[in-house]
Each structure stands twice: as C-alpha cells, then as structure tokens.
Amino acid sequence: MRTVVPRAARGVFGPRFAHSCAAATRSPNRLSKSLGSGSSPNLSLALGTRTGSRGLSSTARRRDDKVDENENYDEYQRKWSTPLAEQLGKAISATGPVPLASFMRMCLTGDMGGYYTGAIEKGRDQFGLKGDFVTSPEISQVFGELIGIWFVAEWLAQGRQKQGVELIEVGPGRGTLMSDVLRTIQKFPAMADSIDAVYMVEASPELRGAQKKLLCGEDAAMTESKVGSHSVCKYMSVPIVWTENIKSIPTSAEKMPFVVAHEFFDALPIHAFECVTVPPTQSIPQDEADRSSPSTKTSQPTLQWRELLVSPTPPESTHETLHTPPSQSRDTPPPDFQLTIAQAATRHSLYLPESSPRYRAIKSGAGPGALIEVCPDASLYASDFAARIGGSAQHPKRKPSGAALILDYGPGDGTVPTNSLRGIRRHRRVSPFAEPGLTDLSADVDFAGIAEAAARASEGIELHGPVEQGTFLQIMGIQERVKALVAAAKARADAGDKEAEGYAADVEKAWKRLVDRGPGGMGKVYKVMAMLPENEGRRRPVGFGGNVSVEE
Ligand code: SAH
Question: Which InterPro entries is this protein grouped with (predicted)?
Fold first, then answer.
C-alpha cells in the first residue's frame, strides 16, 4: 500500500507557504510484492498471448455485423477505463502483447493522453495534495538548497571554473528544485557568474509551462530554436532552455555540467523478464532481426529469459477475478491490462538480460522463476551524463569536469529490482494497469545498473554511493539550515507576522520527513548517487564520505 504520511510543509514564506495535510510520496514504503494487476496466479493463468487469456463473446459478435468475422470483437464492445486504454487495447489486438516498457512509455509520455503529457484534468498537476504524490523539493525548500550547496562545493573542489558552467535538470516537475538550487547559487557570485545556461529536460508541455512561470515569470518571452524553447531566468538572468530529450542539449569539451535527476529515473520505462526452463530441442522462434544469430535448438533443458508482456484482461474482469490486492482496488475500476509471459524469446529477451554479468548471475544462481527488471533508458541517460562529465570516444574532453546527482528510490545494495512496478493515483497505491494515462507509474531504480552504464560510457568518471537520503541531507547540514529558518520565522512571528506563526512547527515536520528512516519517512528508502570526474579515489564528495575542499 502507498504510505500516507503526516502533515507536510514547504518551508518558505509567501504563496508556496505550508500546505499541510496527508500526502503520499511515490516511494515503495511498505510495498506489497505483486505483479501488476494481480499476483502470480494471474500470471500463470495468463500465460501466452492475448487469445489464450480472453474469450470471445458471442453476444458481442451478433450485435456488430460490421466487424469482420475474423476480428476479435471484444475490443470494440468492451468498456475501457480511459481513451488511452481503448487505444492501447485495440493496438494490442492488432499487433499482439507489447513489452512492459512500450506500455509504460505510452502511459507516461505518449502523445495520446500520457500521464505527463496530457491526460490529467485541466488546472490539476501531478504534485501536491490535490495531485497524486508529493516529492521532496515540494516538501521543503531546504532540499533544493542543499543540492545547490553540493554543486557549489563541487565547483569549488574542481577549481572554480570561470565560465562554461551548465546546470541541467532532467524531469524537473514544477521547477521547484531548480528554483531552490538557483536561489542558493545566486548567493555565491563567483559561481553565479560562471553559469552559461540552465537546461531543463521535460516531456510534459504543461510542466514546461509551470517551470517557465516559476523560473522566468509568466510574461517572459519564449523563443524557439533547433535545440528547444529559450527564455531568461529571473535568477542571475541566465539563459534557460527547455528540451524534451537530453540528447538535444549540445555537448562541448569546455563545459562543466552539473546535472540533477530527482525522481526521474523511476519514471523511465522498464522491461521485465522471468527465467524459465526450456525443454530440450525446442526451437525458439526469433524475430527477423535475430535470424543471423546462432541456432537456438537445444539438446538439454536450458534456462532462458522470457519477457513479461502487457495484454488486455479478459472482458468483464473484476478485481476478484484478477486477484487485485484489496488495498489497490478501492475506488478504481478493474485493470484493463495484465502481464503475461511471452511463450518465445523476444528481441529484448535475447539481449537485455545478457547485457550485464549481474543478470547472468541471477539466471545461473536463482534459476527458474527469477524475475528482473531492466531499464535501457536509464542506461542511456547515465551514459549521457557520464560522457558530458568525463568525455567519451565520440566527445573527448581534455579534463573531465562537472558532476551529477541522482536521487531516487531503489535497492542500495547492488541487487537488481524485481516486481517493483507500481501505480499511484491521488496519494494511493493502485494497480499499474488501471486507468492508463491517469495513473502514475514508477519502478525501483537500479543504481548499480546506472553505475555500470556510466562506467562503460566514459573512463573519465567515477561513482559514489548510493547513500541513504537521510545520511546525505544530515551531512549536508539540513539540521543547521532548518534551525536558521526556524529562528528567522520566530523573529518574524515576534515582530507580528501572522503567517510566521506555526511556520516553525511546519518546517520542523517537513525536514524530519525527508530524513526519517521509519516506514513513513523518506530518509532510508530514497538514495543518492554521485557521478564525478575520475580522480583515482583521491577526493570523495561531500555527503559521500568527503569534506569540502577547494582546489587552488
Ligand atoms: N523532479 C521533480 C518531478 C518528478 S516526477 C520532483 O521531484 O518534484 C517526474 C518528472 O519527469 C516530471 O517532470 C515528468 O514530466 C518528467 N518525465 C517523465 N518521463 C520523462 C521523459 N521520458 N523525458 C523527460 N521528462 C520526463
């Protein structure tokens, strides 16, 4: 079940001040392990393609004489929970079950009513009490301030470059984190002067609008170029550029990029695989693209990965027939889709689970029934960060520079995420296959996978962590910063500022939630990983075992 946690307050005066009420984060606190819409019985029931898991309704057939005899009528007759569900259902009827990653991509950022790209009602966004979940930057300004300080510390430690500094945020939500980071950096004029541009990588047009309003003001002019949409930031008057993909941001050997990804990687589409025993001499059908690979006929039973695919649930399904966990079925229609296991190898099952020794060890160690989740987009983003910071064969860099901070939830011990896909709507855990386009989807982040991809992409970087968010924020001085805010609030309250009354208490609660290691807190579940220029382990960054240092 989603965790509902007590009062949250964003610790600032003014319009953003203190929304206080229960709000859920997207982290997997107290996650019950279940595969999608149902649990494992559902999976075995639904083995195979959609035809195996769905019956044709004869009444439906009689009623629609326009539909060809060979077509599956159910897609035309059944009631889908959202327009996107209908579109996906019909597409899957035509093409067969689709990889989980394709389903997630359509649901989150697809053109036709994806969660971040359109389906949410007008005037409502994903965040805060009226939305679906709450995130750390929205809980307290201190979160973004400390990330700003961390970047300042890195800039100092890396020799105070005078120009060419870039700030890049992927998945910036409402823009709150970047606003807090920039307000903090503004207090360090030498670093502020070194900033060439701020880049915001954002898929959602609505959120791009919200970010622009916050960072530039509603009336600020916007211009378009090949790279993206440009405006000027109210902080330090630096140019700010929005792109939909990090690849659109130009690379240059002279730049010092500081990248932040907060709750971004968990929103990237994952593929899921299950290890199965394949009987001897079974010939494994392959895609066109794989015909050139060696024969897969076997004389011994072999262990192979099979991809978990998404197909429609049988028409007239109920939460009971689908075994939806009771905690996920309240006020939600029965899921339109479910996971099924592919009967044969797919293009992805042939190469993704073979791409890392970690997956191979699971196949030989855990054997049949083992599940893994693989996120190729996470590897692409990690490789991009690494190449920007450390240089690569394609984009060599004389001296690696910059840093990236990745904050998200997922295993911190190097294990591969399994069974972690979850749906979130209005602060509650729901089936990820219910109300596509209205339901937020996320999955645990494979920090070790990110580290592997980054290390492969560039020899000029090194990785630190992941460490727990609670530890990171404590070392970064969250308590001291909160003390200062509370003291200032009390002084204002003494001077008659009504709003400041109660503010101190809200700030206290908010910061505690960010570092709390208990089930309702974010201190343990959320992790922080840092990517730095390679320095042969001579210097550890602040928050990861190192001190503030200044390179002269
Ligand atoms: N970092 C913010 C928002 C987290 S929600 C916060 O902590 O408050 C995820 C964010 O990533 C949203 O802004 C969403 O629109 C964006 N996003 C999700 N998938 C994306 C993709 N594939 N490309 C670019 N942005 C994406």
Answer: NDUFAF7, NDUFAF7_sf, SAM-dependent_MTases_sf
In the block, tokens 């319009």 appear at: 15
Question: Is ligand 1 within 6 A of the CB of residue 408?
Answer: no
Q: Determine whether the shortest distance from the Cβ of 263 to ligand 1 is under 6 A.
A: yes
Q: What is the pLDDT of residues 210-222, one digit of tens each?
A: 999 999 999 999 9
Strands (E), 292-386: 302-312, 337-341, 371-374
Q: Residue 374's beta-bridge partner residues?
A: 271
- Round to whole Å and give the CA distance between 322 and 319: 5
Reported as a single tens digit per residue, the pLDDT across 58-100 is 222 222 333 344 445 455 678 899 999 999 999 998 999 999 9
Q: Does ligand 1 lie within 6 Å of residue 144's CB atom?
A: no
Testing ligand 1's pocket by substitution, the residue of 204, 211, 212, 270 carrying the most ligand atoms inside 8 A of its CB is 204
Pairing label, strands 428-430, 422-425: antiparallel
Q: Whose alpha carbon is nearest atom 11 of ligand 1? A: 171
262 within ligand 1 shell (Cβ under 6 A): yes
N- to C-terminal Cα distance for the chain?
A: 51
Quick one: pLDDT at residue 120? 60
pTM, two decimal places:
0.86
**174 CA: nearest ligand 1 atom:** 8
Neighbours of 212 (CB within 10 A): 21
* pLDDT tens-place string over residues 473-519: 999 999 999 999 999 988 988 888 888 878 888 888 889 999 999 98
- The Cα diameter of the chain in Å comes to 84
Cα angle: 456, vertex 255, 199; to 5 degrees: 90
Please report where in the chains the tokens 């999976």 appear, as a residue: 43
* Cβ of 387 less than 6 Å from ligand 1: no
Pocket test for ligand 1, best of 102, 116, 146, 214 (most atoms within 8 A of CB): 116
